[in-house]
Model the fold of this input.
Amino acid sequence: MIIIIRNVIALIAFSSALIFGTAGIIGLFRFPDPYSKLQAGSLCGTTAVFSIFMGSLALAPNWAIAGRIIIICFFFLLSSPTGAHIVARFAWQSNIVPWKPAARNRRRGKNKNNGNKQEPLQ
Done:
């Protein structure tokens, strides 16, 4: 009975990892600027990998392996957002302009330049 419960918990964790990973990939293609893409990729990537670790933790055969998974999970949760922050900071210092729709275009629902250019922040 315990084995069935552990397998169901692992299945739920692996399924959520699939959903988070798919959402991250969609965000990478859908969002307009590098900052939004970085946020979608890092957030969904972190949650997907964390879900995989939780599923692996549910299937761990003994406490030694479970302890190793917990330590790896701790270091991953510490390093993944830090890496995304470093990339975003480098992009900001390289003067990559975040995407921002013009106020006039937001009211009308139209894009005056047909999506060819991004307008810099003021």
Observations:
- Residues 2-108 form one domain.
